[in-house]
Design a protein that fits this description.
The protein has 256 residues and is an alpha+beta fold. It has 6 helices and 8 strands. The chain starts with a helix and ends with a strand.
């Protein structure tokens, strides 16, 4: 009986060794497999991140164009509605750019709500929807300082997912502030307050030459009368305004 028991123990030891060796082989295989999967995940996520950055660039371009068209349309409306019988169109020079801002915000909101609900990319649909929600909930900011127009959409979430297989889904999420900055000079315009201040500074010197120098983004003509000057400005650049290529014209009166 004792001998039989010893033989059984040896058999158990052999089986245990075999099981341990099998487990070791399986664990080693799983280790190498997992390393391959980690490499695949890194490569895949790197590609996804590039794709997310590409989505951000495309969305910023769209917002840039919406802000630009809103600014130029508002600027043109204000400039073309000038009352020549009143000093500087009757504008309060210190607040005229605030009136411009109100119009820009209104037009930008209208533009954003026209972003399509159906496009080829579901990601774009989601992004456009999120932009609309932010705009309609006033979760954005537009500032005008007479030299720049700045748009900020805070904490915008980009998300990209791809299915490698039925069980492998890789997701990249990226949250950032969307910021668009337009400079008036690049667009070919000058803030209304700055136009007023530069024009007033030219009345005591060679008016027309001074205006041509200080308002050099515009073609300038001056007509003098007993009461003062009528100044005719026309933008040098041809601008896209409300779907049409045109030059902005701004004519105003300044007393002596």
């Amino acid at each position: 009986m004792n001998k039989l028991e010893i033989n059984n123990k040896k058999g158990d030891i052999s089986i245990n060794i075999l099981v341990l060796m099998t487990l070791a082989v399986v664990c080693l295989a799983l280790f190498y497999f997992s390393q391959d999967r980690i490499i695949e995940n890194k490569i895949s996520n790197a590609g996804l991140l590039d794709s997310v950055y590409g989505d951000e660039t495309n969305l910023l371009f769209l917002l840039d164009k919406s802000l630009e068209s809103s600014l130029l349309s508002s600027y043109n409306t204000l400039a073309s509605g000038c009352d020549l019988s009143r000093e500087f169109c009757g504008f309060d020079a210190n607040n005229v750019d605030n009136g411009l801002k109100e119009s820009v915000i209104k037009k930008f909101k209208e533009s954003a709500n026209k972003y399509p609900d159906s496009v080829s990319s579901q990601d774009k649909v989601n992004y456009y929807k999120e932009i609309k929600e932010n705009v309609n909930d006033n979760k954005y900011d537009i500032q005008l300082n007479g030299k720049e127009a700045i748009l900020v959409v805070p904490g915008f979430l980009f998300s990209k997912a791809i299915n490698k297989s039925k069980i492998d889904i890789f997701v990249v999420e990226y949250r950032t502030d969307l910021v668009v900055n337009l400079t008036y000079v690049d667009l070919g315009i000058i803030g209304f307050k700055e136009i007023y201040e530069r024009s007033k500074s030219c009345l005591s010197v060679n008016t027309e030459n001074c205006l041509k120098e200080k308002l050099n983004l515009f073609n300038v003509e001056v007509s003098k009368s007993d009461k003062g000057y009528i100044i005719f400005l026309e933008s040098r650049k041809l601008l896209l305004i409300d779907g049409e290529s045109k030059k902005i014209k701004f004519n105003f009166f300044l007393g002596q």
